[in-house]
Design brief:
The complex is a heterodimer. By secondary structure, chain A is α/β, with parallel strands linked by helices. Chain A contains 9 helices and 8 strands. In chain A, strand 6, helix 6 and strand 7 form a beta-alpha-beta unit. Chain A is globular. The chains are: A alpha/beta, B alpha+beta.
Chain lengths: ~300, ~90
């Protein structure tokens, strides 16, 4: 037995796997588990589909844990699934959302890296794939997407914490996610990726200082999203395009999804502002998840109403 | 639990006031093993940007001395990373 799963605590990979199974068995009418592939170390990549069997409904894809040491991120994805299933049929907004749309939730994107942070090195960031002609291990999965992949020379070194991999989508994890999104592109209207830390809500672009064509729309959603988030505990988030709000990036999942045609793509950088950094205490998990939930629900409502 | 320990490792925060100070951080990154927390790599460091990075116990003293010599203001966000790692788990099993 992997031990008891808790939403108030960080859960290791074994607990998360057991939890995905439990969620599926507990609410089979609205939760299903899809294996979209396997990692470099042959761990399964599971997506939880929340919202029923209808494939033609609008959908939102959300991933957590692309960077191994950002533990609050998988914790939020678990919280989201828990709240969605718990409040379906009780809360008017959640019921409407799940009746009319599906959520694809990938609770841990970088499974091998996540396991590594629990067992070997808490500060690990990349995945655990082996690099040819180098002793250095791992690729930064959020530099491995096929968008402006070749742009930044600093990411060519396998020993860099930002190593982008030998080719775009070279990593099994990236390929599994991109294949899944491409297969479901007709229905996926929004892409959300959850990171930590620095309290930001970001949208494209990261690879260029230019504004995306739908800048006004994205900016409006991000502004209201951060306003809504702050209503619970007055946590202040800033928002804006990646390049000017945080720093320029290449090969990021957000830009890739946007250029693929998903016109609402957002990245959350969750708590905190650096007091704890990647080591947010468990006692702050619930409040972090609760306020983030407000913003994600707002984005979902906006997508339901406005995305075509 | 995690085999690698981070006893007395520190996380520093600073805000380089100009290009010269940003370059000092970049120089430090060439000669020391700095783990950048924010931004996520040294090449993103620019003037007036808040920078957080982790340093080993061994290298901390000389890095702090360099910052002092160059009159660079810094804050020690985390004094002992290992302690902070253990303090993450502050909820007891129900």
């Amino acid at each position: 037995s992997p031990g008891r799963h808790s939403y108030a605590k960080y859960n290791n990979w074994d607990k998360i796997v057991a939890w995905t199974e439990k969620m599926m068995n507990k609410r089979p009418e609205i939760v299903s588990r899809i294996k979209i592939g396997a990692t470099a170390e042959d761990n399964p990549l599971y997506i939880l589909k929340i919202g029923g069997k209808d494939e033609s409904k609008k959908a939102i894809f959300m991933d957590c844990g692309i960077h191994a040491r950002e533990w609050v991120s998988p914790a939020f994805c678990q919280w989201f699934v828990y709240q969605a299933t718990k409040t379906y049929g009780r809360n008017k907004i959640m019921t409407k959302l799940l009746d009319r749309m599906n959520f694809y939730v990938l609770p841990v994107f970088n499974v091998d890296g996540y396991i590594w942070t629990w067992t070997k090195n808490r500060m690990w960031r990349k995945n655990r794939s082996k690099n040819q002609n180098s002793k250095c291990i791992g690729t930064d999965l959020n530099r491995n997407f096929n968008v402006s992949w070749n742009a930044f020379p600093e990411t060519k070194n396998p020993c860099s914490p930002l190593y982008r991999g030998p080719a775009p989508e070279s990593e099994k994890e990236t390929k599994a996610v991109t294949d899944f999104i491409r297969r479901n592109l007709k229905s996926i209207k929004a892409y959300i990726t959850v990171h930590s830390y620095s309290q930001m809500l970001l949208f494209p672009y990261g690879y260029t200082p230019e504004m995306p064509p739908t800048y006004k729309d994205l900016n409006k959603v991000a502004k209201i999203g951060t306003d809504v988030l702050s209503t619970r505990y007055e946590t202040r988030y800033i928002y804006g395009p990646i390049a000017s709000t945080i720093y320029p990036t290449s090969g990021s999942s957000l830009d890739w999804a946007y250029d693929l045609g998903i016109k609402h793509t957002f990245a959350f950088e969750l708590r905190d502002k650096g007091r704890f950094g990647f080591l947010l205490p468990e006692s702050r998990l619930k409040s972090t998840c609760k306020e983030t939930m407000l913003a994600v629900k707002f984005i979902a409502k906006y997508i339901l109403r406005h995305a075509s | 639990f995690s085999q690698v320990r981070f006893d007395r490792e520190k996380v520093l925060r600073m805000k380089p006031q100009d290009e010269r100070q940003a370059n000092i951080i970049k120089d430090l990154a060439q000669t020391n093993e700095l783990d950048f927390w924010y931004p996520d790599a040294v090449h993103h460091v620019t003037a007036n940007m808040t920078v957080d990075f982790r340093v080993s116990e061994k290298e901390a003293q000389s890095i702090l001395a360099t910052l002092d010599q160059n009159k660079m203001h810094y804050e020690i966000l985390i004094h002992d990373l290992q302690e902070e790692i253990e303090k993450q788990f502050d909820i007891k099993e129900e």
